[in-house]
Amino acid sequence: MLSAITLGVWSMVFMSALMRGMVDEMVRGGLDTLPGEVQIHHPAYRDDPSVTNSIGQPEGELLRVLQSIPLEAWSARVKVPAVIASERNSRGVLLLGVDPVAELALGFDASDIIEGRFLIDEMDKGVVIGASLARRLETRLGKRIVLMSQDPDNNVAERGARVVGIFKARLEGTEDILVYAARQPVQAMLGINTQVSEIAVSAGNYRDVQWYQSLAVAAGEQLETLPWYQLDPYLGSMLKMQDGFALVFMVVVFLALSFGLVNTLVMAVYERVREIGLMQALGMSPGLIMGQVLLESTLLMLFGLTAGNVLAFVSIKPLESGIDVSAVAQGMAMMGAGTVLYPSFAWADVLMSTAVVLILGLLASLLPAWRASRFDPITALGKN
Q1: CA of 319: how far to CAs of 21, 272, 313, 324, 335, in Å?
Q2: Which terminus of the chain, N or C, has less C-beta within 10 A?
Q3: Other CB atoms closer than 10 Å to residue 224's CB: what's the count?
Q4: Could you count the other beta carbons within 10 Å of the beta carbon of residue 147?
Q5: pTM for this predicted structure
Protein backbone atom coordinates (compact mmCIF):
# COMPACT_ATOMS: atom_id res chain seq x y z
CA MET A 1 0.00 0.00 0.00
CA LEU A 2 2.90 2.32 0.78
CA SER A 3 4.37 1.63 -2.68
CA ALA A 4 1.00 2.28 -4.33
CA ILE A 5 0.58 5.63 -2.53
CA THR A 6 4.16 6.61 -3.43
CA LEU A 7 3.61 5.77 -7.10
CA GLY A 8 0.23 7.52 -7.12
CA VAL A 9 1.61 10.73 -5.60
CA TRP A 10 4.54 10.68 -8.05
CA SER A 11 2.18 10.30 -11.02
CA MET A 12 -0.02 13.15 -9.76
CA VAL A 13 2.85 15.63 -9.46
CA PHE A 14 4.64 14.41 -12.60
CA MET A 15 1.57 14.68 -14.83
CA SER A 16 0.76 18.11 -13.38
CA ALA A 17 4.33 19.23 -14.18
CA LEU A 18 3.98 18.04 -17.80
CA MET A 19 0.60 19.77 -18.14
CA ARG A 20 1.92 22.95 -16.56
CA GLY A 21 4.91 22.93 -18.91
CA MET A 22 2.71 22.49 -21.98
CA VAL A 23 0.31 25.26 -20.95
CA ASP A 24 3.24 27.57 -20.13
CA GLU A 25 4.63 26.98 -23.61
CA MET A 26 1.26 27.73 -25.18
CA VAL A 27 0.89 30.94 -23.18
CA ARG A 28 4.46 32.06 -23.88
CA GLY A 29 3.95 31.38 -27.58
CA GLY A 30 0.76 33.43 -27.50
CA LEU A 31 2.44 36.27 -25.61
CA ASP A 32 5.25 36.31 -28.18
CA THR A 33 2.59 37.05 -30.79
CA LEU A 34 0.58 39.54 -28.75
CA PRO A 35 3.16 40.58 -27.19
CA GLY A 36 3.23 41.67 -23.53
CA GLU A 37 0.92 40.79 -20.66
CA VAL A 38 -1.11 44.00 -21.02
CA GLN A 39 -2.01 46.13 -24.06
CA ILE A 40 -3.60 49.54 -24.50
CA HIS A 41 -5.70 50.25 -27.61
CA HIS A 42 -8.33 52.51 -29.05
CA PRO A 43 -11.71 51.03 -27.88
CA ALA A 44 -12.64 50.12 -31.48
CA TYR A 45 -9.24 48.76 -32.53
CA ARG A 46 -9.83 45.08 -31.73
CA ASP A 47 -12.98 45.04 -33.88
CA ASP A 48 -11.39 47.11 -36.66
CA PRO A 49 -7.55 47.05 -36.53
CA SER A 50 -7.08 49.87 -39.03
CA VAL A 51 -5.10 53.12 -38.84
CA THR A 52 -8.33 55.06 -38.23
CA ASN A 53 -8.35 53.54 -34.74
CA SER A 54 -4.88 54.71 -33.77
CA ILE A 55 -3.91 56.38 -30.49
CA GLY A 56 -1.31 58.94 -29.50
CA GLN A 57 2.07 58.20 -27.94
CA PRO A 58 1.88 57.81 -24.12
CA GLU A 59 2.21 61.10 -22.29
CA GLY A 60 1.21 62.79 -19.06
CA GLU A 61 -0.14 60.53 -16.32
CA LEU A 62 0.01 57.40 -18.50
CA LEU A 63 3.69 57.95 -19.27
CA ARG A 64 4.40 58.60 -15.59
CA VAL A 65 2.70 55.35 -14.55
CA LEU A 66 4.52 53.38 -17.27
CA GLN A 67 7.81 54.68 -15.93
CA SER A 68 6.93 54.19 -12.25
CA ILE A 69 5.46 50.66 -12.20
CA PRO A 70 8.21 48.00 -11.92
CA LEU A 71 7.93 46.79 -15.52
CA GLU A 72 10.40 44.88 -17.67
CA ALA A 73 9.54 46.77 -20.84
CA TRP A 74 6.88 48.65 -22.80
CA SER A 75 6.66 49.67 -26.42
CA ALA A 76 4.37 51.85 -28.57
CA ARG A 77 3.78 49.94 -31.82
CA VAL A 78 2.01 50.39 -35.13
CA LYS A 79 0.17 47.16 -36.00
CA VAL A 80 -2.00 47.05 -39.13
CA PRO A 81 -3.11 44.44 -41.69
CA ALA A 82 -1.02 44.66 -44.83
CA VAL A 83 0.00 42.84 -47.99
CA ILE A 84 3.62 41.98 -48.73
CA ALA A 85 4.61 41.26 -52.33
CA SER A 86 7.79 39.89 -53.82
CA GLU A 87 8.57 39.56 -57.51
CA ARG A 88 6.93 36.11 -57.45
CA ASN A 89 4.18 36.06 -54.84
CA SER A 90 2.15 38.06 -52.33
CA ARG A 91 0.70 37.33 -48.89
CA GLY A 92 -1.52 38.97 -46.31
CA VAL A 93 0.47 39.80 -43.18
CA LEU A 94 0.44 41.83 -39.99
CA LEU A 95 2.78 44.80 -40.38
CA LEU A 96 4.49 45.87 -37.16
CA GLY A 97 6.10 49.29 -36.94
CA VAL A 98 8.31 49.05 -33.86
CA ASP A 99 11.02 50.75 -31.87
CA PRO A 100 13.75 48.08 -32.23
CA VAL A 101 15.32 48.71 -28.80
CA ALA A 102 11.95 48.54 -27.00
CA GLU A 103 10.90 45.49 -29.04
CA LEU A 104 14.00 43.54 -28.00
CA ALA A 105 13.32 44.43 -24.37
CA LEU A 106 9.66 43.44 -24.79
CA GLY A 107 10.54 39.90 -25.77
CA PHE A 108 11.81 39.58 -29.35
CA ASP A 109 14.87 37.34 -29.14
CA ALA A 110 17.74 38.56 -31.29
CA SER A 111 19.02 34.97 -31.45
CA ASP A 112 15.91 34.10 -33.49
CA ILE A 113 17.44 35.97 -36.44
CA ILE A 114 18.87 33.17 -38.61
CA GLU A 115 19.93 35.38 -41.51
CA GLY A 116 20.92 39.03 -41.61
CA ARG A 117 20.11 41.29 -38.67
CA PHE A 118 17.28 42.85 -36.70
CA LEU A 119 16.27 46.48 -37.17
CA ILE A 120 18.81 49.00 -35.91
CA ASP A 121 16.71 52.03 -34.94
CA GLU A 122 13.36 53.75 -35.57
CA MET A 123 14.61 55.11 -38.90
CA ASP A 124 15.75 51.77 -40.36
CA LYS A 125 14.42 51.36 -43.90
CA GLY A 126 14.59 47.54 -43.98
CA VAL A 127 12.13 44.83 -42.96
CA VAL A 128 12.50 41.56 -41.07
CA ILE A 129 10.33 38.62 -42.14
CA GLY A 130 9.84 35.02 -41.01
CA ALA A 131 11.63 32.07 -42.59
CA SER A 132 8.34 30.44 -43.62
CA LEU A 133 7.10 33.68 -45.20
CA ALA A 134 10.36 34.03 -47.15
CA ARG A 135 9.84 30.54 -48.58
CA ARG A 136 6.24 31.29 -49.55
CA LEU A 137 7.23 34.57 -51.22
CA GLU A 138 10.21 32.86 -52.87
CA THR A 139 12.43 35.68 -51.71
CA ARG A 140 15.58 35.88 -49.61
CA LEU A 141 17.86 38.16 -47.66
CA GLY A 142 18.74 41.37 -49.54
CA LYS A 143 15.82 41.18 -51.99
CA ARG A 144 13.31 44.02 -52.26
CA ILE A 145 9.64 43.61 -51.40
CA VAL A 146 6.61 45.93 -51.48
CA LEU A 147 4.41 46.63 -48.44
CA MET A 148 0.81 47.78 -49.00
CA SER A 149 -1.87 48.87 -46.55
CA GLN A 150 -4.56 51.57 -46.17
CA ASP A 151 -4.11 55.13 -44.93
CA PRO A 152 -6.73 57.00 -42.81
CA ASP A 153 -8.54 58.06 -46.02
CA ASN A 154 -8.82 54.41 -47.15
CA ASN A 155 -6.36 54.97 -49.97
CA VAL A 156 -3.64 52.44 -50.76
CA ALA A 157 -0.39 53.27 -49.02
CA GLU A 158 2.72 51.45 -50.15
CA ARG A 159 6.48 51.49 -49.96
CA GLY A 160 9.35 49.34 -51.13
CA ALA A 161 11.85 47.92 -48.67
CA ARG A 162 14.75 45.52 -48.57
CA VAL A 163 14.74 42.31 -46.50
CA VAL A 164 17.50 42.88 -43.94
CA GLY A 165 16.71 39.94 -41.64
CA ILE A 166 14.93 36.58 -41.50
CA PHE A 167 13.75 35.17 -38.17
CA LYS A 168 12.78 31.72 -36.92
CA ALA A 169 9.83 31.55 -34.52
CA ARG A 170 8.63 28.87 -32.12
CA LEU A 171 5.52 28.40 -34.30
CA GLU A 172 5.54 28.43 -38.09
CA GLY A 173 2.30 30.40 -38.10
CA THR A 174 4.13 33.30 -36.42
CA GLU A 175 6.72 33.30 -39.20
CA ASP A 176 3.95 33.48 -41.81
CA ILE A 177 2.09 36.44 -40.38
CA LEU A 178 4.50 38.91 -38.71
CA VAL A 179 6.58 41.45 -40.63
CA TYR A 180 8.78 43.83 -38.61
CA ALA A 181 9.65 47.33 -39.82
CA ALA A 182 10.90 50.45 -38.06
CA ARG A 183 8.13 52.59 -36.62
CA GLN A 184 8.82 55.97 -38.28
CA PRO A 185 8.92 54.71 -41.91
CA VAL A 186 5.66 52.85 -41.30
CA GLN A 187 4.04 55.95 -39.79
CA ALA A 188 5.21 58.00 -42.76
CA MET A 189 3.84 55.42 -45.23
CA LEU A 190 0.43 55.39 -43.51
CA GLY A 191 0.33 59.16 -42.96
CA ILE A 192 -0.45 58.96 -39.23
CA ASN A 193 2.32 61.27 -37.94
CA THR A 194 3.41 59.93 -34.52
CA GLN A 195 0.27 57.89 -33.77
CA VAL A 196 0.46 54.18 -32.88
CA SER A 197 -1.92 51.24 -32.80
CA GLU A 198 -1.11 49.87 -29.36
CA ILE A 199 1.05 50.14 -26.29
CA ALA A 200 2.32 46.72 -25.20
CA VAL A 201 3.53 46.30 -21.62
CA SER A 202 5.36 43.42 -19.92
CA ALA A 203 6.33 42.76 -16.31
CA GLY A 204 7.76 39.28 -16.99
CA ASN A 205 5.12 37.28 -15.08
CA TYR A 206 1.93 36.43 -16.95
CA ARG A 207 0.38 34.80 -13.86
CA ASP A 208 0.29 38.10 -11.96
CA VAL A 209 -1.00 41.09 -13.94
CA GLN A 210 -3.04 42.89 -11.29
CA TRP A 211 -0.83 45.93 -11.82
CA TYR A 212 -2.66 46.54 -15.11
CA GLN A 213 -5.45 48.28 -13.16
CA SER A 214 -3.09 51.20 -12.43
CA LEU A 215 -2.47 51.51 -16.17
CA ALA A 216 -6.21 51.39 -16.89
CA VAL A 217 -6.84 54.27 -14.49
CA ALA A 218 -3.99 56.33 -15.99
CA ALA A 219 -5.08 55.60 -19.59
CA GLY A 220 -8.65 56.65 -18.82
CA GLU A 221 -11.95 55.48 -20.25
CA GLN A 222 -11.10 56.81 -23.71
CA LEU A 223 -8.59 53.95 -24.12
CA GLU A 224 -9.05 50.20 -23.66
CA THR A 225 -6.55 48.55 -21.29
CA LEU A 226 -6.74 44.76 -21.17
CA PRO A 227 -4.63 41.90 -19.74
CA TRP A 228 -3.52 39.04 -21.96
CA TYR A 229 -6.21 36.60 -20.83
CA GLN A 230 -8.90 38.97 -22.11
CA LEU A 231 -6.99 39.77 -25.29
CA ASP A 232 -6.68 36.03 -25.99
CA PRO A 233 -9.51 34.19 -24.15
CA TYR A 234 -8.32 30.83 -25.52
CA LEU A 235 -5.01 31.12 -23.67
CA GLY A 236 -6.80 32.30 -20.54
CA SER A 237 -9.14 29.31 -20.62
CA MET A 238 -6.18 26.95 -21.09
CA LEU A 239 -4.55 28.28 -17.94
CA LYS A 240 -7.76 27.77 -15.98
CA MET A 241 -8.20 24.30 -17.47
CA GLN A 242 -4.71 23.31 -16.33
CA ASP A 243 -5.56 23.85 -12.66
CA GLY A 244 -8.89 22.07 -13.04
CA PHE A 245 -7.30 19.15 -14.92
CA ALA A 246 -4.63 18.75 -12.24
CA LEU A 247 -7.23 18.55 -9.47
CA VAL A 248 -9.48 16.11 -11.37
CA PHE A 249 -6.51 13.88 -12.24
CA MET A 250 -5.37 13.77 -8.62
CA VAL A 251 -8.84 12.95 -7.34
CA VAL A 252 -9.31 10.15 -9.91
CA VAL A 253 -5.90 8.61 -9.13
CA PHE A 254 -6.45 8.60 -5.39
CA LEU A 255 -10.02 7.36 -5.66
CA ALA A 256 -8.55 4.27 -7.34
CA LEU A 257 -5.91 4.01 -4.62
CA SER A 258 -8.50 4.45 -1.88
CA PHE A 259 -10.00 1.01 -2.61
CA GLY A 260 -6.62 -0.52 -1.87
CA LEU A 261 -6.24 1.62 1.23
CA VAL A 262 -9.65 0.57 2.57
CA ASN A 263 -8.87 -3.09 1.84
CA THR A 264 -5.50 -2.86 3.61
CA LEU A 265 -6.98 -1.22 6.69
CA VAL A 266 -9.92 -3.64 6.86
CA MET A 267 -7.56 -6.62 6.71
CA ALA A 268 -5.35 -5.01 9.34
CA VAL A 269 -8.36 -4.52 11.62
CA TYR A 270 -9.63 -8.11 11.23
CA GLU A 271 -6.15 -9.53 11.83
CA ARG A 272 -6.06 -7.67 15.16
CA VAL A 273 -9.52 -8.46 16.49
CA ARG A 274 -8.18 -10.02 19.75
CA GLU A 275 -5.75 -7.11 20.23
CA ILE A 276 -8.56 -4.58 19.82
CA GLY A 277 -10.83 -6.60 22.14
CA LEU A 278 -8.06 -6.65 24.80
CA MET A 279 -7.63 -2.87 24.56
CA GLN A 280 -11.38 -2.44 25.01
CA ALA A 281 -11.40 -4.78 28.00
CA LEU A 282 -8.61 -2.73 29.59
CA GLY A 283 -10.79 0.38 29.27
CA MET A 284 -9.82 1.93 25.93
CA SER A 285 -12.83 3.84 24.59
CA PRO A 286 -14.26 3.26 21.09
CA GLY A 287 -13.27 6.82 20.16
CA LEU A 288 -9.59 6.15 20.99
CA ILE A 289 -9.63 2.90 19.02
CA MET A 290 -11.10 4.73 16.05
CA GLY A 291 -8.46 7.43 16.45
CA GLN A 292 -5.68 4.82 16.52
CA VAL A 293 -6.75 3.31 13.20
CA LEU A 294 -7.05 6.78 11.64
CA LEU A 295 -3.59 7.67 12.99
CA GLU A 296 -2.10 4.53 11.44
CA SER A 297 -3.77 5.43 8.13
CA THR A 298 -2.46 9.01 8.35
CA LEU A 299 1.11 7.83 9.03
CA LEU A 300 0.90 5.45 6.08
CA MET A 301 -0.24 8.30 3.81
CA LEU A 302 2.40 10.71 5.16
CA PHE A 303 5.19 8.22 4.45
CA GLY A 304 3.79 7.66 0.94
CA LEU A 305 3.43 11.40 0.36
CA THR A 306 6.99 12.09 1.42
CA ALA A 307 8.44 9.34 -0.76
CA GLY A 308 6.22 10.25 -3.74
CA ASN A 309 7.00 13.97 -3.61
CA VAL A 310 10.75 13.35 -3.28
CA LEU A 311 10.60 10.94 -6.23
CA ALA A 312 8.65 13.53 -8.27
CA PHE A 313 11.17 16.27 -7.44
CA VAL A 314 14.23 14.24 -8.45
CA SER A 315 12.56 13.00 -11.65
CA ILE A 316 11.14 16.35 -12.80
CA LYS A 317 14.06 18.70 -12.06
CA PRO A 318 16.46 17.10 -14.61
CA LEU A 319 13.72 17.33 -17.27
CA GLU A 320 13.08 21.07 -16.79
CA SER A 321 15.82 21.76 -19.35
CA GLY A 322 13.42 20.36 -21.97
CA ILE A 323 12.01 17.18 -23.51
CA ASP A 324 12.22 16.87 -27.29
CA VAL A 325 8.73 16.13 -28.64
CA SER A 326 9.50 16.87 -32.29
CA ALA A 327 8.07 13.44 -33.18
CA VAL A 328 4.61 14.93 -32.52
CA ALA A 329 5.53 18.46 -33.65
CA GLN A 330 2.41 18.95 -35.79
CA GLY A 331 0.09 18.05 -32.94
CA MET A 332 1.94 20.35 -30.55
CA ALA A 333 1.82 23.17 -33.11
CA MET A 334 -1.96 22.77 -33.42
CA MET A 335 -2.20 23.40 -29.67
CA GLY A 336 0.12 26.40 -29.90
CA ALA A 337 3.12 24.70 -28.25
CA GLY A 338 6.64 24.21 -29.55
CA THR A 339 8.65 21.07 -30.24
CA VAL A 340 10.35 21.15 -26.83
CA LEU A 341 8.29 20.51 -23.69
CA TYR A 342 9.55 22.05 -20.45
CA PRO A 343 8.01 20.31 -17.39
CA SER A 344 7.59 22.71 -14.49
CA PHE A 345 7.82 21.52 -10.89
CA ALA A 346 5.52 23.66 -8.73
CA TRP A 347 5.06 23.48 -4.98
CA ALA A 348 1.38 24.30 -5.54
CA ASP A 349 1.00 20.86 -7.19
CA VAL A 350 2.73 19.23 -4.21
CA LEU A 351 0.37 20.97 -1.77
CA MET A 352 -2.66 20.04 -3.88
CA SER A 353 -1.64 16.37 -4.06
CA THR A 354 -0.99 16.35 -0.30
CA ALA A 355 -4.42 17.82 0.42
CA VAL A 356 -6.18 15.36 -1.93
CA VAL A 357 -4.39 12.33 -0.45
CA LEU A 358 -4.96 13.31 3.18
CA ILE A 359 -8.62 14.31 2.78
CA LEU A 360 -9.68 11.36 0.62
CA GLY A 361 -7.43 8.98 2.58
CA LEU A 362 -9.01 9.93 5.90
CA LEU A 363 -12.49 9.63 4.40
CA ALA A 364 -11.62 6.16 3.07
CA SER A 365 -10.25 5.19 6.51
CA LEU A 366 -13.40 6.10 8.39
CA LEU A 367 -15.21 2.81 7.64
CA PRO A 368 -12.45 0.46 8.88
CA ALA A 369 -11.87 2.71 11.91
CA TRP A 370 -15.58 2.72 12.74
CA ARG A 371 -15.78 -1.08 12.39
CA ALA A 372 -12.83 -1.47 14.77
CA SER A 373 -14.47 0.79 17.36
CA ARG A 374 -17.71 -1.26 17.25
CA PHE A 375 -16.22 -4.63 18.24
CA ASP A 376 -17.71 -6.33 21.31
CA PRO A 377 -14.78 -7.03 23.73
CA ILE A 378 -16.06 -10.47 24.88
CA THR A 379 -16.68 -11.65 21.30
CA ALA A 380 -13.36 -10.20 20.12
CA LEU A 381 -11.36 -11.94 22.88
CA GLY A 382 -13.02 -15.22 22.00
CA LYS A 383 -11.71 -15.11 18.40
CA ASN A 384 -9.01 -17.62 17.53
Answers
A1: 11, 45, 10, 10, 21
A2: C
A3: 19
A4: 21
A5: 0.70
